Every structure is written in C-alpha cells, then in structure tokens.
Amino acid sequence: MISNVQDAMPTTCQKCQQPTVKKFGVYGKKRIQRYRCTSCSATFSDPKPASPLGTMRISVETAVHALQCLLEGCSVRSTERLCNINRNTILSLLLLAGKRCERLMAEKMKNLKFKYVQCDELWTFVAKKQKRVRKDDPAEFGDNWFFVAIDSETKLVPCYIVGKRDRDTTVRFLKALKATATDDRFQLTTDGFHFYERGVENVFAGQTDFAQLVKLYGDYGQFGNERYSPGRITEVISKVRDGRPDPEHISTSHIERQNLTIRMSMRRLTRLTNAFSKKGLNLKAAAALHFAYYNFCRVHQTLRVTPAMEHGITDHIWTIRELLEPK
C-alpha cells in the first residue's frame, strides 16, 4: 500500500522541476494532499481533475440531476426545490449546457441525407406577450417562434431557429437546414406561412420537391372552455410549389407531433403559467439543451433508439454528462 501511494506522488517540483518532493500534510474537508519541495521550499497540491462544469462549484451529479428536471418539464423554481440549489445557479448551468449543446449540434449536424423533411413554427413569448410590448422594450420581448425541421423517417431534428416570425428568421432557418443536408434532392413540406414560398426558392434553388400544406380553421362559435381550444380544421389544401413531391408524403403530422413533445418537455413553453422565459438568452439555451437531448439521449418510442442513432450519427445512447463535456 505504501509503494502505491509513493508511486502516485509527483516526482518533480512544479516550480524548480527538481526531484525533491515530500508530503506536507493535507487541507480541507476533502483531505487534499499537499507537497513541499526541499530545494526551493515551494508548496503545492495534486492538480484537480478537469470538470465539465468549469468554475461552477456544484458536483457533476447535482448538475445532471438539475438538467434532467428541466428536460422533463420542471420549472426553474421546481428544480430549485428538488435539487436544493439556488435558481441563479440553475440558470448559469442552463446557459453553460446550452452553449455546449449548440456547439454539439453545429458539429454533428452536417452532410445528412434526407428523404422527407417537414418544417413548422411553434409560438412562445419572452417577458410579455406582443400586445403588452412598449416602444422602449428590448427587441427580444414579445412573441418569439421556434422554427423546427424534422426528418420524417428518423425523427431527427437537424436544425432549429428561435426568433421573430418574419422573413429574416425564415431565411436563416432555411439556410441552416441547407447547411445540414447533402446535395441530394429531398422532399420538403411546410405549413402555409407565406415567406417559405420565396425563401425555399432562393435558398435551395430547385434542390427540393417542395409543397405547402395550408390548413383552414373555423370558429367554434361558443365561449367558455372552448376559447382555449384550437380552432376546428375546416379544410386542408396541398399546394405544390416546386418539383414533383409525392402526394402521399405531403404532410406536417410528424413536426406537429414534435411540437407537442417540445411543449411537454419545456416548462417555459407551457401555456397559461408564469414559467415563461424572462430573457431571450435563457430561451435559446433551453432550446439548444432540449434538441440536443432529444437527438442524442432520448430513446424514441417507435424507433427504440435515439434519432441520432437511427440516422447513423452516433452508435450509442448519450448521457446528459456527455452533453456537458467540452467539445
């Protein structure tokens, strides 16, 4: 046992690089071993192992638990009570995880071959709803939209954009989708949002068989509980915009089901609560964490593997700790 301890000791001084190192007591509750150089009298301790949390002082296990709570639909304050850590620490952890997940998505979502892609937008808001926004409020306040694309076959979400529902955000989203795909032709279906028509034509330049599915909604004509229900669909119109899309696959059903998954997994997107995002930066970090977790960690019920495994991007189910590892 003594020889094993001696083998684990540093052999040279960190300051003068001389092999004259002896033990020099311990310090702290964790009993960290100190050493002293008999040549230059410098003292030092064992180097700390690198933590995926950087300078954060919570344990990795606590961080993983907190992120798991957020990913399963808990609010920040609920996570604070469940994990017994301060909400400011939780938000700092969310921003750190969001940056790591953004880099992961940018690194892995490249040269992907698609056959059928569906796109849709999902509404939320930051700080206040659009009708409450004042002229001097930050630009991020008010309505925000998740632009999301999904591969119908593998259920992979290759890209997303969080922003306003306007032309610029639509073009950025389509360019992000193009950056993830190979040059092979694929079929693209969107809803009836009018900026898609010219945007797809300009960005993909005939690379896609493009169709839009326009849904017309009617009113219930009643008041009470029905006013919080979605409108009744009265008609669905398929419009071929470019190429020759297969009519059997002109659909937005998979992306609309993905919208439900997003709202069930992210507390800040739950309607009629006070858990909405107060800052746009936190909303974008939560989105990055959700989509990275969905693609790499969450086993899809029908696929029996993660979407990233089904698409061939990875060969195993990732853990939340792997998402936190610096890329």
Brief rundown of the structure:
With 327 residues, this protein is α+β, with helices and mostly antiparallel strands. The chain has helices spanning 2-8, 60-71, 76-83, 87-108, 167-180, 195-204, 253-265, 280-296, 307-311, 320-324; strands at 21-27, 32-37, 43-45, 116-126, 142-151, 160-163, 186-190, 208-218, 232-242.
* Physical arrangement of strands within the biggest beta sheet: 6-5-4-7-8-9
Structural class: alpha+beta
- What summary fits the major beta sheet? 6 strands, mixed
The second-level CATH architecture of the largest domain is 2-Layer Sandwich
The name CATH uses for the topology of the largest domain is: Nucleotidyltransferase, domain 5
What is the count of helical runs? 10
- Helix share, percent: 25-40%
- CATH homology superfamily of the largest domain: Ribonuclease H-like superfamily/Ribonuclease H
Q: What's the β-strand tally?
A: 9
In words, what does this structure look like?
With 327 residues, the chain is α+β, with helices and mostly antiparallel strands. The chain has 2 domains: 44 residues, no CATH class; 265 residues, Ribonuclease H-like superfamily/Ribonuclease H (Nucleotidyltransferase, domain 5), CATH 3.30.420.10. It is 35% helix and 21% strand. It has a 6-stranded mixed sheet with strand order 6-5-4-7-8-9, sandwiched between helices. It has a 3-stranded antiparallel sheet with strand order 1-2-3, with no helix packed on it. The N terminus is likely disordered.
